[in-house]
C-alpha cells in the first residue's frame, strides 16, 4: 500500500473566524460597527492577514480592535476602509511604528479620526521607546492632522504626562460606585457560570435555543450639528425609519434617544404608536435639559413607552434631568463606569446621561425576559404552560410594568429607582449554598419572582 501524503497547510496562521463571519453573512448580517478580537495569545498562532481580510471585508466595520501585534495597516484599510477608530497593538519595533505613520499606512484610511496605540515595551529602553512614540505622534500630526492619537502604556510604565495614566488616577475621585451596577454585574457572572455548569452535555446549547442571550439590532441614525456646533442631534425622520425597521425585524425591545428637532415629528410619533401596537417594549431617554424640560417626545406619543432619567448612586435623579414627575423610572446615569471590553487593560470609560440610564433599563427588560425563559426550560411539565403564559404576557407594556414593580424601589427616588439587589442580589448570595449544577435554578427563581403580579 502506498502511504497517503497529507497536504501541508499553506501558512501557519489561523483562519477560524473566516467561518464565523461567513455564518453571520449567511444570517443576513451586513454591518458590524465594532469588532474586538483577542488574537495575540502566545500559546497559539494568530490569524493570517489574508484570513482577517476575508473575515471582515465588506462588513462596514467602524471601530477596529483586532488585537494582533504589529498588524499591517494595509489589512485594516482593505478589510475596513470606513474605519473611524483603530486600535493598534505595538511590540516596540520602531520599523512597524514608522510604517503605520508613513503615507502608505494610516493615511490611507479616509474616515479615520481616532487611533489608540497599545504599547508594549520590547527590547529598547523606556527612554528610546518614549522617543519613538513621540516621533510617531509628530509624523501623525503632520500626515493626518485630523486624527487624534491616544496612548495606552503598560501598567509598569509611569509616564506622568500620559493621558490614560492621568485619567486612571482621576477615576477614584470622580466616579461614584453604583450598587446597582455592581449587583447586575455579579448576576451576569452568575448566569454565565450557571450555564457553563449545567449538568448535561447538550444542556447549554438547549438553554440557548430556548433562552438566547440578547441579540442587538443596531441602526445608525442621521444626525445634524446643533446650533452651537457642539453636538450632533439625531433627526426625527431617521428615528421614525429606524423604529419601522425594528418593527419589520421583529424586535422585542426598542431603546431610543429623543430627537432634538421638531421637524417631521408627527411621523416619528406615528412610528412609535405603530411599535406600541406591535407590543414592542419601548424605552426613551429624558431630554436632560434641566428644570424646564417639556414632556419628551416621542414619549408623549403614547402611554406605552417608558421615559427614563439618569440617577446618581443614591437613586435620586440628577439635576439636569429636570421634571422628575415626567419620568417612568430612573436608572444609573451619573459617572457610570463602562467595562472597556474583554481582557482590555485600559481603565473603564466614564459615561453620563439619561441615554446611559435608558440602555440599562432596556437591558434589564431583556434580562427579565431571559430569566422567564430559563424558568420555562427548567419548569416541571405541569408548570410549563403557566410559565409560557407569563412570558407571553410580560412582553406587553402594562405587564412589564408589573414585573418592574415586583422589584422594590427607593423612597429617595420617589419610588422610581429599582433596588435590584433585593431580587437579583439575593440570588447571588444564595449561589455559594448551591451545587454548581443547580445554580441555573436561581435564574429561573428570579423569573418566577418577577411574574408574581402579572397573572
Automatic annotation (TrEMBL):
Q: Which GO terms describe its biological process?
A: proteolysis
Which Gene3D superfamilies does this UniProt record tie to the protein? Peptidase S8/S53 domain (3.40.50.200)
InterPro entries (alphabetical):
Peptidase_S8/S53_dom, Peptidase_S8/S53_dom_sf
Which SUPFAM superfamilies does the annotation name? Answer: Subtilisin-like
TM spans (from-to): 356-378
Which superkingdom heads the taxonomic lineage of this protein's source?
Answer: Eukaryota
Please list the GO terms describing molecular function. serine-type endopeptidase activity
Show where the Peptidase S8/S53 domain sits. Answer: 207-369
* Hydrolase in keyword set: yes
Keyword Cell membrane in the entry? The reply is no
Keywords, sorted A to Z: Hydrolase, Membrane, Protease, Transmembrane, Transmembrane helix
- Supply the name of the protein: Intracellular serine protease
Q: Which organism is it from?
A: Fusarium agapanthi
